[in-house]
Amino acid sequence: MAYETVLFDVADRICTITLNRPERLNAWTRQMHLDLKDAMHKAGSDPEVRVIILTGAGRGFCAGADMGGLQAIGSGATADRTTKAQEGLPGGSTLPEFRMNYSYFPAIPKFIIAAINGPAAGLGMVIPLYADLRFAAESAVFTTAFAQRGLIAEHGVSWLLPKLVGLPTALDLLCSARKFRAPEALAMGLVNRVIPDDKLLAEARAYASLLANTVSPRSVAVMKRQIWEAEFQTLAEATTQANHEMELSFQTSDFKEGVAHYLEKRAARFTGR
């Protein structure tokens, strides 16, 4: 399937999804929202895909909402925020919190890496926060932007951002809407790595390859679900869930393979079962 606003490529068990409106710094539109959501669910349900990389075409990741759409809303048009509901994917979280318009990444049972290749503003900054890891190019520049548009902390960022950077820093970034660069984003914990621009995708793919070829995809899916759902659990609930998942893992082919490849000193051949 060809998409209007994203590129979709699968190679070596890695799916690369690229926001593709480079002439507008990949500014966000309703069509991009629909395309990305469908592409993410497509990759999430494909047994040949083990890791997803999300990046942007051209010199930016995403400049936020397309100003034409915002102008139309400001002129009295009603914002169309409805989308076709997506069914949950096997192995993914079933929590309703991860079934909303922009919070569905944690319910995708594949590891998601955001490779932020340039400016990331507004919604274009929020989207990668829902990824499992964020790698930023040295040229990346971030801003929440909402306060400069007369808007508020949208799409769950008021819940998510403080968990990543702490309450005072989240208030700073949201209320000032100031721009900040990749090194500061790394220092505050917003991104996991800062990488030279020309090496960003190569390093993202190298990390993705590590996950795709050396660890159990079933283990990754379960642990991803555990980590995200633990944000809504007590320690007792998280421990009870972990004990149950451990018993299930003992019955899998991947557990047997995990022991066998170690003892036989060979590369793992995990199947995800």
Briefly characterize the structure.
With 273 residues, the chain is α/β, with parallel strands linked by helices. The protein has helices at residues 30-45, 67-74, 123-129, 157-165, 167-176, 182-188, 200-214, 217-230, 235-249, 253-263, and strands at 6-11, 14-19, 51-56, 111-116, 120-121, 133-137, 141-143, 180-181, 193-195. It has 10 helices and 9 strands.
Explain how this protein is built.
The chain is an alpha/beta fold and 273 residues long. It has 2 domains: 6-211, 2-enoyl-CoA Hydratase, Chain A, domain 1, CATH 3.90.226.10; 233-263. The chain is built from 10 helices and 9 strands. It has helices at 30-45, 67-74, 123-129, 157-165, 167-176, 182-188, 200-214, 217-230, 235-249, 253-263; strands spanning 6-11, 14-19, 51-56, 111-116, 120-121, 133-137, 141-143, 180-181, 193-195. Helix 8 packs antiparallel against helix 9 (235-249). The model is unreliable at 70-85 (pLDDT under 50).
Helical proportion, percent range = 40-55%
Strand content: 5-15%
What composes the largest sheet? 6 strands, mixed
Mean pLDDT, to the nearest integer, reads: 91
Uncertain regions spanning at least 5 consecutive residues: 70-85
N-to-C series of helices and strands = EEHEHEEHEEHHEHEHHHH
Shape: globular
CATH class type of the largest domain: Alpha Beta
Number of strands: 9
**Number of discrete helical segments:** 10
Task: Count the domains.
Answer: 2
Instruction: Give the helix/strand class.
Output: alpha/beta
Please give the alpha-carbon distance between the first and last residues.
Answer: 28 Å
Strand order of the largest sheet: 1-2-3-4-6-9
CATH homologous superfamily descriptor of the largest domain: 2-enoyl-CoA Hydratase, Chain A, domain 1
As a whole number of angstroms, the C-alpha radius of gyration is: 19 Å
Q: What would CATH call the architecture of the largest domain? A: Alpha-Beta Complex
Reported by name, the CATH topology of the largest domain is 2-enoyl-CoA Hydratase, Chain A, domain 1
